[in-house]
Amino acid sequence: MLSITLSGHGGFASGLEQAMKQILGEQPQVIAIDFPESSSTALLTAQFEEALATLDESKGLVFLTDLLGGTPFRVASTLAMQKPDREVITGINLQLLLEMVLERDGLSSQEFRLQALECGHRGLTSLVDEMGRYREAETIEEGI
């Protein structure tokens, strides 16, 4: 099973982890690492390294971060480049996390990345678009 680290500014990572646990229950091989305003790049790097020491990377590791170019993304990227079978995905949200935690078993880190990107694109929508899809489906079912 792929290991996952969540990281982001403020309490983003622990908030996602808490919401995930509320919906799915405890999930193995998932660690959240927050980056509060009082932290530093050196401290965040040390926290990542400590977390990585506890995770099983035999099937690969995926770093999920909040913001492209932010410190959690940059630290994760540096660590990802140190070993094969590590991927960094940024711009994550709760829907992506939930779907990918459930789908990760049997996926390589590269397959996870590709599927997560599809999930992220599919998950960003609006009420108007969803209502339009519902109406289209309803029309097809009733159609003549």
UniProtKB/TrEMBL annotation:
GO MF annotations in UniProt: kinase activity
Domain PTS EIIA type-4 per the UniProt entry, residue ranges: 1-124
CDD domains linked to this entry: PTS_IIA_man
UniProt keyword terms in alphabetical order: Cytoplasm, Kinase, Phosphotransferase system, Sugar transport, Transferase, Transport
Any GO BP annotation: phosphoenolpyruvate-dependent sugar phosphotransferase system
Protein name as catalogued: Putative phosphotransferase system enzyme
Alphabetized Gene3D superfamilies for the sequence: Phosphotransferase system, mannose-type IIA component
GO cellular component entries: cytoplasm; membrane
Keyword Ion transport: no
Stored NCBIfam families: AgaF
Keyword Repeat among UniProt keywords: no
Organism in which the protein naturally occurs: Xenorhabdus bovienii str. kraussei Becker Underwood
Record-linked InterPro entries: Bacterial_PTS_sugar_comp, PTS_EIIA_man-typ, PTS_EIIA_man-typ_sf, PTS_IIA_man
Highest taxon in the source lineage: Bacteria
Pfam families: EIIA-man
SUPFAM superfamilies: PTS system fructose IIA component-like
Location(s), subcellular: Cytoplasm
